[in-house]
Design goal:
Helix 4 packs parallel to helix 6, helix 5 packs parallel to helix 7 and helix 6 runs parallel beside helix 8. The chain has eight helices and no strands. It is mainly alpha-helical. The radius of gyration is 15 Å and the shape is globular.
Length: 132
């Protein structure tokens, strides 16, 4: 976990050329992290670092690969850290996934989904997410 925290800080000061190299190395490890460290702090920091090192398009690739590898067992923390400004394609994919998971929007505030919904609302500029 400390390694990913450090890598995140390093990515913040690297040029885009080197950030892309770091991102590619990290991206290759998705299956390993999901298979062995699901629902841990390490998984959360891994995806946080991956999202921060990548561009909007790369974040979309991460979201796709993550959702394919976990199926219906996604982590709301991971989905939350993958949401970011100027990543509309990835944010839309996460939003669509959340909508499929929640049948009754009136119980959202009492469920685990409040965290990614709140962040989604913030990164989308407080726009209406879904009229339902």
């Amino acid at each position: 976990m400390q390694i990913y925290k450090l890598m995140n800080e390093i990515c913040n000061v690297l040029s885009s050329k080197y950030r892309n190299k770091v991102w590619n190395i990290l991206f290759r490890e998705i299956e390993l992290v999901v298979a062995n460290y699901s629902d841990t702090d390490l998984e959360s920091w891994y995806f946080y670092t991956l999202a921060n090192c990548g561009t909007a398009h790369e974040t979309y690739k991460v979201v796709n690969k993550y959702l394919k590898s976990v199926g219906e067992n996604s982590s709301v923390i991971v989905l939350s850290v993958l949401l970011k400004n100027k990543s509309s394609q990835a944010n839309r994919k996460i939003q669509d996934y959340i909508v499929k998971q929640i049948n009754n929007w009136q119980t959202v505030s009492q469920s685990k989904w409040w965290l990614p919904l709140s962040k989604l609302w913030l990164v989308k500029g407080n726009l209406d997410l879904n009229k339902k």
